[in-house]
Write a structure and sequence with these properties.
Structural class: alpha/beta
Shape: elongated
Strand content: 5-15%
Radius of gyration: 21 Å
Low-confidence stretches: 101-113
Number of strands: 12
Mean pLDDT: 90
Number of helices: 11
Strand order of the largest sheet: 2-1-3-4-5-6
């Protein structure tokens, strides 16, 4: 009897070097090749440490393959591929939506169907008995998630909200997906491999001389305008930014950095406090990473994190934010190191991949 197949759609990393990316471009292989379809690590250019969103792809794919042995085949797709997957009678489809206008499997526009692989498959099999699961980051922001509302409400049989903070599901009925029964929805935390993010922050600058940093882009939901207001309000502000574009008042350290332990240990020699003022982050991975590295973290609940060992910021009350940061400036180093240890334990117990992937497998029923 033919084994059923788990079809999994998520992000796929591009080549890890200029040569590989050049070959991909020449061959019009922009997202995934047929060799990736098996999900074997040999054919996928994972770059360690594997950062989000590829860490989600990597860990869920491994969990599906390990659990599926002898019961299912597993096929892996890039979210920007185009055209519907052909599902067998007992196949399971787990797909991440992408804005329309992606590429076909061959790298050329599909003349018959211009929708992404997830959208096309869910629509093709509407009303079928297949498990059709939508997996997506989620925040209660219409601009961020309403474009996939139709897929979630009318085509998916279950929804997995990946890397999403509890703040976004607390008042579920009021969210853009609120008409979907809660029993059809699973919320999972962002996961992290603790081995890739060891403690590197062993001491802090003297009181009143502690320095700030921010890692991330400046899309509207990152709310970097509040970071700019904070910089303007603090005399002699000393903070750096790693990421594209500019954040006024924050020195640009680089457009990109591979957050290896060596790089972060060097950063830890000078900087102390990671700041994030997001208004609609599903669950910002950089916060979790810096919790593990041992930095003090000050962030908004809307960043997706609300733990008591974090310093809570407002999305727009600059005066309050400055007061919070001044409080951190004047705390004893022992207090800050104790909070860092608590952050590490929270990451270990609430954000480990084995716990997260087990929840996903149980929810799907495999």
């Amino acid at each position: 009897m033919k084994k059923p197949t788990i079809h999994f759609v998520y992000t796929v990393p591009l080549g890890t070097n200029i040569f590989r990316r050049g070959v991909d471009k020449i061959l019009k292989i922009f997202h995934i090749t047929p060799l990736h379809r098996s999900g074997r690590d040999f054919f996928i250019p994972w770059k360690h440490p594997i950062r989000a969103p590829h860490s989600i792809s990597y860990n869920l794919l491994r969990a599906f393959k390990e659990t599926a042995k002898g019961k299912y085949k597993v096929k892996f797709y890039g979210m920007y591929e185009k055209g519907a997957v052909n599902l067998g009678p007992n196949d399971i489809f787990i797909g991440t939506p992408a804005p329309e206008g992606g590429l076909s499997y061959s790298g050329r526009p599909d003349k018959d169907d211009y929708s992404s692989v997830t959208s096309a498959t869910l629509r093709k099999y509407k009303g079928s008995a297949h498990q059709k699961i939508l997996i997506t980051p989620f925040a209660d922001d219409k601009l961020l998630v309403s474009w996939m509302k139709d897929l979630a409400e009318n085509y998916a049989t279950k929804i997995i909200l990946s890397a999403t903070g509890e703040i976004w599901t607390r008042n579920w009925e009021r969210t853009p997906f609120g008409s979907i029964p809660k029993e059809k929805v699973l919320r999972i935390n962002m996961g992290i491999d603790m081995n890739d993010y060891p403690f590197v922050k062993r001491s802090f600058n003297p009181k009143g001389k502690r320095k700030y940093f921010y890692i991330g882009h400046n899309a509207w939901y990152k709310n970097t305008v509040e970071l700019e207001r904070i910089a303007e309000a603090i005399p002699n502000f000393d903070g750096v930014h790693i990421g594209g574009a500019d954040v006024k008042g924050w020195k640009k350290l680089s457009n990109f950095a591979n957050l290896t332990p060596d790089f972060m240990a060097k950063l830890a020699e000078e900087y102390d406090i990671f700041v994030n003022t997001s208004t609609a982050d599903a669950q910002a991975t950089t916060i979790l990473e810096n919790m593990c590295f041992g930095f003090v973290v000050a962030c908004t609940p809307q960043s997706g994190y609300e733990y008591p060992s974090l310093f809570s910021l407002s999305t727009n009350d600059t005066k309050s934010n400055v007061a919070t940061l001044e409080k951190i400036q004047n705390m004893d180093e022992e207090e800050l190191l104790d909070l860092a240890k608590k952050n590490k334990e929270i990451a270990r117990t609430g954000h480990s991949w084995p716990i997260i992937t087990r929840d996903v497998l149980d929810f799907i029923g495999i």
